[in-house]
Amino acid sequence: MDMKILKYELKRIIFSKIFVITFIIALFFSVIDLYTEIIQGVSGTAPFSKWSYCKFLCDINTIMLLILMLTCTGLFSRNEQRVREITSCTSLPQKKYLTTKNLALLISYLIIAMCCIFISVIFYKTTFNFTNFENFLLPILIILLPTFAFVFGTSMFLGSKKQIFLYIWIPIVLILSLVNFNNAPFIDIFAKGYASYMPTILPVDGFGEPVFILSSHFIISRIIFTLIGIMLYLASFKKL
Fold first, then answer.
1. What distances in angstroms separate CA 174 from CA 65, 118, 190, one per listed residue?
2. Is 140 in contact with 222 (CB distance < 8 Å)?
3. Cα(107)–Cα(109) distance, integer angstroms
């Protein structure tokens, strides 16, 4: 891992106009979503239930991944191709160079995710005096990680074939994020339908809240999405 290239790529991504604008939009959207949608609870659940927080994560994940994919397009631009031609003449391996740039993309995604989650922490603390945020660790992992792996891996694979494929993939992901598939986890990439549908059919606990249960089908679907994303990501390096 070349730390100089990593620092340079992080600065280039974070201080780019596209990232700054979309980052502000993501934060603004998080606030709006929390105070208009999540504050009412999801499918009759409390605003601070795990189901409601899953819905929040599904909502913000859409815009975070759109930012990621837009940033990915830069990896396959003509200017980037020229840079690779130059670096190919140096001692820096192409796979190592691209891996470093991908790590910068991952860190930029994590920065946005952490900031949006931090906004939710402030929201729950100030609005409901809720501080049991350790309850949200599982929703964060099960909602964000598989979708990130799948979308990022697919984006890298398509972009490595042809940049236009990546531009076609972006609106497809947006459309998929807007559709609620209810109890169909194997096609519900963003899990938005699952987070809204399951609380309506599950038994309630002593507090009248639907029990937070992840079905075996849902867990398997998250594993499959993650594995597919990893395999497509690795396949994107074959042409190097």
1. 9, 24, 10
2. no
3. 5
The radius of gyration of the chain's CA atoms, rounded to the nearest angstrom, is: 19
Sequence-distant (≥ 6) Cβ neighbours of residue 125 within 8 angstroms: 131
C-alpha distance across the termini of the chain, in Å: 17
pTM for the whole thing? Answer: 0.89
Q: Are 50 and 139 in contact (CB under 8 A)?
A: yes
Residue type, position 237, single letter: F
Q: What is the largest CA-CA distance in the chain?
A: 67
C-alpha–C-alpha distance, residues 120 and 118, integer Å: 5
pLDDT digits (tens, 9 = 90+) for 113-134: 999 999 999 999 999 999 889 9
Residue 149 near residue 231, CB atoms below 8 Å? no
Please provide residue 210's backbone torsions phi and psi, each rounded to the nearest 5 degrees. -60, 135
Is 205 within 8 Å of 51 (Cβ atoms)? Answer: no
Q: What is the per-residue pLDDT across 3-28, written as a single tens digit (0 to 9) for each?
A: 787 888 888 888 888 889 989 999 99
Cα angle: 64, vertex 181, 153; to 5 degrees: 40
Residue 148 has pLDDT above 90, yes or no: yes
Kind and range of the H or E element at 215? Answer: none
- Rounded Cα distance between 181 and 58, Å, is 13
CA-nearest of 59, 83, 66 to 19 is 66
